[in-house]
């Protein structure tokens, strides 16, 4: 598997599959922070030790397969151009923090891009496993199995009292971040989401944008994840998150029904106006594109727009990002050039569906 494989397709293979409640929940992710017991954490480790960790991961796991996750590719970060790094961030295969590293950092990616293991980010290993739709319990079971497979050859830094030891104290304990990516256009439209976010935060959960910490919720896409990792089991953390996500799903569906009953003409007008913008614009900025894509995705889910794939939101949200646009163009683009190319690619994609 070559790096070009991960660069050419905006949507990862696993994202083409339907999952439970996928009209609202785009994806489920479990991330585990793990460290080698015999080495200092990356922030303090010697460069030669970090290099040794990279060499070990490459030697032991490159081109290996585990269950449904085949042919792992080892990609050193220092070998990537700035645009290639940005594309991997936009596809959620690496974090923005890892993209900034230059030495002794890498990522191990399965062929279907469902698993990515970041090497020497904030921790020696950041293990990510994705599933389409709302599948927290299944994702937890599978990430445990993946973790056990890795631990067969790695001695993790673990304390009987504190649990897994991590570079940041906020990850000590389970070392786990469970998150669910949700499309909540109706809660945003009715402004209910503004009242819900503070309540969710009080439950030990956090609401972020599509690219996690520090990012904004463009396109009405919100990432809900746990904040607490110490003092609760992985199962308890997942149960708490699952309960809140179920509530959000129910509220979003009620809000959609309310809007359909009370403002159906306004709703249809907004959706078709957004569809028109996407179908005919010659220049479009990323925020406007995200807003219009959100409206069109809602129209598809409500049956207002027919014969257009639900995957259009997932695909175009990545395809129209700055990194992917420049990867597509094979050159660095100005902001105006990106806006023109973004509009062109969206028009082509819409025409293919129509």
Notes on the protein architecture:
This is Protein-arginine kinase. It catalyses: L-arginyl-[protein] + ATP = N(omega)-phospho-L-arginyl-[protein] + ADP + H(+). ATP binds at residues 27-31, 92, 126, 177-181, 208-213. By secondary structure, this protein is of the alpha+beta class. Among the domains are: 1-11 and 32-173, Creatine Kinase, Chain A, domain 2 (2-Layer Sandwich); 263-352. The chain is 46% helix and 15% strand. It has 13 helices and ten strands. It has helices at residues 3-8, 47-61, 82-90, 96-99, 136-151, 185-189, 192-202, 234-262, 264-280, 286-301, 312-319, 322-329, 335-353; strands at residues 25-34, 73-76, 106-109, 115-119, 125-132, 158-159, 163-164, 176-183, 205-208, 221-226. It has an eight-stranded antiparallel β-sheet, covered by helices on one side. Strands 6-7 form a two-stranded antiparallel sheet. The longest helix has 29 residues, at 234-262. It is globular, with a radius of gyration of 21 Å. The two termini are 33 Å apart.
Mean pLDDT: 91
Q: Could you tell me how far the N terminus lies from the C terminus, measured between alpha carbons in angstroms? A: 33 Å
Number of strands: 10
CATH architecture of the domain at 1-11 and 32-173: 2-Layer Sandwich
How many DSSP H or I helices?
13
Named CATH topology of the domain at 1-11 and 32-173: Creatine Kinase, Chain A, domain 2
> Helicity level, as a percent range?
40-55%
Strand count, sense and barrel status of the largest sheet are: 8 strands, antiparallel
Order of helices and strands: HEHEHHEEEHEEEHHEEHHHHHH
Strand content: 5-15%
Please state the CA-atom Rg, rounded to the nearest Å. Answer: 21 Å
Low-confidence stretches: none
CATH level-1 class of the domain at 1-11 and 32-173: Alpha Beta
Shape: globular
Arrangement of strands in the largest sheet: 2-3-4-5-1-8-10-9
The CATH superfamily label of the domain at 1-11 and 32-173 reads Glutamine synthetase/guanido kinase, catalytic domain
Structural class: alpha+beta
């Amino acid at each position: 598997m070559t790096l070009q494989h991960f660069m050419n397709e905006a949507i990862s293979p696993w994202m083409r599959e339907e999952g439970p409640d996928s009209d609202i929940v785009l994806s489920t992710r479990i991330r585990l922070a793990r460290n080698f017991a015999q080495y200092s954490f990356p922030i303090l480790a010697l460069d030669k030790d970090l290099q040794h960790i990279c060499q070990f991961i490459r030697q032991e796991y490159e081109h290996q397969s585990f269950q449904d996750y085949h042919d792992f590719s080892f990609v050193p970060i220092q070998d990537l151009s700035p645009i290639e790094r940005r594309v991997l961030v936009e596809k959620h295969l690496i974090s923005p923090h890892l993209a900034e590293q230059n030495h002794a950092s890498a990522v191990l990616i399965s062929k279907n891009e469902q698993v990515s293991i970041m090497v020497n980010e904030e921790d020696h290993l950041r293990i990510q496993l994705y599933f389409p739709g709302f599948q927290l319990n299944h994702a937890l079971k599978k990430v445990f199995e993946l973790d056990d497979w890795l631990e067969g050859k790695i001695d993790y830094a673990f304390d009987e009292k504190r649990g897994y030891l991590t570079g940041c104290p906020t990850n000590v304990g389970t070392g786990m971040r469970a998150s669910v990516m949700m499309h909540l256009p109706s809660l945003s439209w009715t402004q209910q989401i503004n009242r819900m976010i503070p309540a969710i935060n009080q439950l030990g959960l956090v609401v972020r944008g599509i690219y996690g910490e520090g990012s904004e919720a463009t396109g009405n896409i919100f990432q809900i994840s746990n904040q607490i990792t110490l003092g609760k089991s992985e199962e308890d953390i997942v149960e708490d998150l699952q309960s809140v996500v179920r509530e959000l799903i129910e509220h979003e569906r009620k809000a959609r029904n309310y809007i359909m009953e009370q403002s159906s003409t306004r709703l249809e007008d907004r959706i078709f106006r957004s569809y028109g913008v996407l179908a005919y614009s010659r220049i479009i900025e990323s925020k406007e594109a995200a807003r219009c894509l959100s409206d069109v995705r809602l129209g598809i889910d409500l049956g207002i727009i027919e014969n257009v794939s639900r995957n259009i939101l997932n695909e175009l949200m990545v395809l129209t990002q700055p990194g992917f646009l420049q990867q597509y163009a094979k050159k660095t683009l100005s902001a105006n050039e990106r806006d023109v190319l973004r509009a062109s690619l969206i028009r082509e994609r819409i025409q293919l569906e129509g």
